[in-house]
Amino acid sequence: MAHDLAEIAKERGIQYFLISYVDLFGVLRAKLVPASAIKGMQKNGAGFAGFATHLDQTPAHPDTLAVPDPDSLIQLPWKREVGWLASDVYCGGELVADAPRNLLKKQIAKAKARNLQMKTGVECEFFLLARDGKSVADVYDDYPKPCYDQLALMRQYDLIKELCDYMLEMGWGPYQNDHEDANGQFEMNWEYDDVLKTADRHVFFKYMTKTLAEKYGMRATFMPKPFNTLTGNGCHMHVSLWDGERNVFEDEAGELGMSKLAYSFLGGVMHSAADLCAIFNPTVNSFKRINAPITASGATWSPNSITYTGNNRTHMVRIPEANRFEFRLMDGATNPYLSPAALLMAGLDGIDNDRDPGERLDINMYTDGHTLKNVRKLPLNLLDALRLLESSEVVRAGFGDGFVNSYIKLKMAEWNSFMSHASAWERLHNLDC
Ligand SMILES: [Mg+2]
């Protein structure tokens, strides 16, 4: 049987499987299962106490069961006797409504019913820090305008090469690696693909990068804005929609070569962008990237308004070529499953309701954005974003009340935890009041 994991283990010399799932906060949870036990686990799933992770459950809930998806199998390239598996998450015989991969698969099924398939590519920026996480790992990486700095890139050659070699080996089609706009910041790009495949790879890439960075005595972070004065970690997502072999976003006769359907999809995303901000930008820290001052390179590399443009990096949405959109709002903390689920849900809503994205803006938003009247702004903090999400009719209709209520409940608890914590900034500004 092609998908019999016990057989695959024998053929490929896999001794252990990591049966994993990603929770609502994007944390990767797993059980390490010997190959001798994989047959039962493949059928019934591995059991977890879901409430002990970021799922909306209590100790009274029955076991959460992670049923591995054999199509997601990756042999760890640096430890080939271990096979990693993403899972579908069940509880009480039902798919868990707030499990992120389940939610994405639900949106994929909705698209499939319309003969549509979304394809995505992600640009996961990350910092390489010292092991204690307090400073950039490479003490020589201090140039004020370090984007594409060859010296700083090549000082991390051993790690970057190892990661890229593994992506080549796994068949992801990696094609470029660079030093990004902040000291200690890097980006590695691989080919776009089916949305679920890219989401699973996104999860695995974060795990692989963190693990290998530790091997080299460093700590990798995808945190949105770890340093006040340096550019934050974005997670730009390139999106196209396909009917079989045909990219239905393309239309030579359309504006910038994009079809009417593409603009309706974009209209849907722009309509719900503020409501979905709590998913694209899910942490307290996320809003320090969105609202950041410009760095030495002349950009914040992140939007704060809901606008789109052609090949211009100062807006929320860029149309780099006549075949896809680049959504630039998401940051490194975004959940690899929830972000594409949100784009697909909002895009389908746009198609169903023929939503109009309005006029394209060809201005530099960093220098001339203030001249625009009536431009919708993104929320300024997580609380405002959560309130928008909570009251969004489109999101409730598209994701279901179960997911929305659970997400709001867990994220409000996080916001309340943040608010109960007096910071160093407050002591600095308020001690002598
Ligand atoms: Mg980048």
Task: Set down the secondary structure blueprint.
Elements: H1 5-12, E1 16-22, E2 28-34, H2 38-44, E3 46-48, E4 64-68, E5 74-75, E6 82-91, E7 94-95, H3 100-112, E8 117-124, E9 126-130, H4 150-155, H5 157-170, E10 174-179, E11 185-190, E12 193-194, H6 195-215, E13 218-221, E14 235-243, E15 246-247, H7 260-280, H8 286-290, E16 308-309, E17 317-321, E18 324-327, H9 338-352, H10 365-368, H11 382-390, H12 393-399, H13 401-419, H14 424-430
Parallel strand pairs: 1-6, 16-17
Antiparallel strand pairs: 1-2, 3-4, 4-6, 5-6, 6-7, 8-12, 8-14, 9-11, 9-13, 10-11, 14-15, 14-18, 17-18
The structure holds magnesium ion.
Percentage of residues assigned to helices: 25-40%
- Alpha carbon gyration radius: 22 Å
Mean pLDDT: 95
State the distance separating the first and last CA atoms. 72 Å
Q: What is the strand tally?
A: 18
Contiguous runs where pLDDT drops below 50 for at least 5 residues: none
| Main sheet makeup | 7 strands, mixed
The percent range for strand residues is 15-25%
* CATH class categorisation of the largest domain: Alpha Beta
Structural class call reads: alpha+beta
The second-level CATH architecture of the largest domain is 2-Layer Sandwich
CATH level 3 topology of the largest domain: Creatine Kinase, Chain A, domain 2
Number of domains: 3
What ligand species are in this complex?
A: magnesium ion
Q: What is the tally of helical segments?
A: 14
What shape does the CA trace take? Answer: globular
- For the record, what is the CATH homologous superfamily label of the largest domain? Glutamine synthetase/guanido kinase, catalytic domain
